[in-house]
């Protein structure tokens, strides 16, 4: 259960990071509200997961999921480009997250 919550919390990290970017310095109300709600939910999920998953592992998995998804959201929106080098590095990051969950 904690792992599932941690994965969802990592996904919510991508939501709040993307919403923060869209908030124009917290000046746009819709993205700002989404940022706050997703941030709180993401932190609660991370905190819950840390009750059974070691802190370092939980944090690394949470950040890894959030980072990869945040980049992918930006690529889909056309805000960033995904070249071969970035794709390979993101794949390594995903592999690292999977590896951390496997050995935890």
From TrEMBL:
InterPro entries, alphabetized: EmrE-like, Small_drug/metabolite_transptr, Small_multidrug_res
Pfam family membership, one: Multi_Drug_Res
Keywords: Cell membrane, Membrane, Transmembrane, Transmembrane helix, Transport
Subcellular locations according to the entry: Cell membrane
Superkingdom per UniProt: Bacteria
Transmembrane segments: 33-51, 58-78, 84-103
Membrane topology value: Multi-pass membrane protein
Coiled-coil intervals, chain numbering: none
Listed name of the protein: Multidrug efflux SMR transporter
Organism, scientific name: Brevibacterium samyangense
